[in-house]
Amino acid sequence: MPVAEAGDQYSVWVGLIYIFNLIVGTGALTLPAAFARAGWGLSTISLVFLAFMSFMNATYVIETMACANAVFKWKRLQFIKRNSVQDEEHSEDEQSTSNQGYGELEDPLVCGDSIPSRYYSLDTRVELGEMANLFLSKAGRTMFYCTLCVYLYGDLSIYSAAVAKSLMDVICTNIPSNMTNTTDWEDMPCFNAEGYTRMDCYRVALLTFFAAMGPFVFFNVQKTKYLQLFTSGMRWLAFVIMISLAIHLLIKHGPQGTPPAFDFTGMPTLFGACVYSFMCHHSLPGLITPIRGKKYLGLHLSLDYSLISIFYLLLAFTGAFAFANLNDLYTLNFVPTDNENIFLEIVDYFLALFPVFTLSTSFPIIAITLRNNLQSLFLDTSRLETYNFVLRKLLFPVIAVIPPLLLTYFLEDISVLIKFTGSYAGTGIQYLIPTFLVLSARRHCTNLLGLGVVNKYKSPFSHVAWAVFVLLWSFVCIILVSVNMLEKHWSR
């Protein structure tokens, strides 16, 4: 989620750090296991390619945001022009003020092919939902909100399952490293005694988590900048420790994991994990708007994506070869053991509980975002206060938190949740929506301003062939993932 508060401004390098922190989140913890299943060769190629696809669509979001700014400025210009005509008989001072406002903008006819237009800017924050309302049809807007809500539901489910499993693994005794059967895992005793299974502990932890975090969805969370900075610091500390410990294990014991080079059966999980790991598009406007000096924003953003790809590869490679068996959530490989070194035991507890600390602070923000989008989908938000108290304050918060609770109560498999969220809803948010938005925005602005008005924030992948490629890639991936999931279901 965005770190910047309204009114904040920062340099492009600070903005890139914020975007780096936004992208590198929970999804990164799922990469090592998916990386090992698909094979180090196939995973490396796929991760780099999906990073490029994510970057391409990030440039589409930036271009669409600039188009939205242009439309708003054009409407303001028309308003000023109308006022100028209506106020012709007013005082000379009032006319001067009106003309001053007009002078801040421009007429479309004065802008040539080689002159970047002042219409196009990134000065005004325009969220993805506002872009959808501005450029998409009613059916397109409905699909946008449905896709976003499904993605946010998946987010909340992954967060809930990750927190509950982390608490369960800290509380319960360790399971054997060769235990792979989920049914056996569910029935194992939580402690060295019968009567209370690990699944029982998981569900108690899940219910406790929802009881603690769920009520926040009925309110609004504001001024979270310092809280997010704190969790960002904890996240980076945890990642550095995990990479360092994995490298230490490789040096001390040699490679324990033997992932294949290519295993295409692991592609669906890898695809979902990578899409989920590079997700930032729904929060980009909030981080880009406050940046000062956006002249080379695209170049700087490509540098950010390159660094993130290198970091992901380092995390995944070290994890895949350092551990013989990898958990779906990487932090679960660092479950505390009876360690004589008190410092290492503290580190293990910190890593094991890391998802609990960081995801608990993000859960209310995601839940409130989901609540607001559900209201936008089903209610007229311009007259929200006219609805009764149940609709305004009770119904949508409950609808936001109950489905993830029910889903994760009976399904604790994080890999399945990520595969679905990343492969379906994630594909929609990261690929389909930015592409449809930018195509519609280009057409809209061309009709409104003319061909001579140049968008200096136009994506370098502006040829329509790139957009067609993204759409075809998205549909092919969804079909392949669906076929794979159906095959696994029928083979059971």
TrEMBL record:
It is a multi-pass membrane protein. Residues 10-64, 129-474 form the Amino acid transporter transmembrane domain. The chain crosses the membrane at residues 12-35, 47-72, 143-162, 202-221, 233-250, 270-291, 303-326, 346-370, 390-411, 464-486. Belongs to the TMEM104 family. It comes from Leptosia nina. The lineage of its organism: Eukaryota, Metazoa, Ecdysozoa, Arthropoda, Hexapoda. It is found in: Membrane. Pfam families: Aa_trans. Keywords: Glycoprotein, Membrane, Transmembrane, Transmembrane helix. This is Amino acid transporter transmembrane domain-containing protein. One of its GO terms (cellular component) is membrane.
